[in-house]
Amino acid sequence: MKYALVTAAGFAAAFMMTGNAAQAQQSPNCTSDAESVWDMSADEVKSFYACMEEWMQQCYAQNGHDVGSVYREWTVSSTRPAVAGAHSNRLLQTFANDIAAGQYLKFETEGVEMPAGSVLAKESFALKNGKGVIGPLFIMTKLEEGASPETNDWHYSGLTNTGDEMRVSQSFCHDCHVSWEAQDGMAYPLEEVRVSN
Ligand code: HEC
């Protein structure tokens, strides 16, 4: 664990010192012939992701953020990324930390209450002019009971593709996530890609 963190920080330092030119070189130039992410077959999504995933992980980790640099060690909740429509029609894939995983991966629809300390991190990426672009890493963190009654104790946050914290409006995120109130505000991946427990 400690080793992984040190490695991520070391990578971040190297990445930042060499600046934008190095960042461009780091881009693996992932391409697809599909018109849009909606037209991609499951296999096309998988090979597109295979090209994107390491690059995404490095980009989110480059500032040593406490979620951005570790989320890939968590439990993945889907068999591949998928487009749900929400989150700007991007391909999405969610990871759950150890506190969250047991409950999240049941994908229950009634009476769900996530334990405090649960963190869900969702990668997002898109296809623009035939090339892969990295969107934000969307994060939901369950706070102690009573810490934020207006968001049902969730804290919403996000990282840019340069590993920087985004300014996030709690009400913007929650106003949509509250639609899944019986699932403690969680929308879950599309059914066809859910990892079965
Ligand atoms: C218009 C509705 C909408 C808005 C606004 C929205 N989300 Fe989501 N969110 C969804 C849907 C739908 C999913 C499940 C889709 C998927 O992951 O395939 C989801 C999934 C997530 C997940 C994975 C956990 C889960 O619910 O299963 C995280 C983390 C997340 N969103 C964070 C955020 C953050 C942070 C914001 C604000 C910046 C935000 N969301 C705004 C609809 C929304």
Automatic annotation (TrEMBL):
Q: Which keywords accompany this UniProt record?
A: Signal
| Tagged with keyword Chloroplast | no
Q: By its UniProt entry, which InterPro entries does this protein fall under?
A: Cytochrome_P460, Cytochrome_P460_sp
Alphabetical list of CDD domains matching this protein: cyt_P460_fam (cd20716)
Instruction: Tell me where on the tree of life, at the top rank, the source sits.
Output: Bacteria
Q: Which residues form the signal peptide?
A: 1-24
Domain annotation Cytochrome P460: ranges: 71-184
A Pfam family found in this protein is Cytochrome_P460
What name is this protein filed under?
A: Cytochrome P460 family protein
Q: Which organism is it from?
A: Roseovarius ramblicola
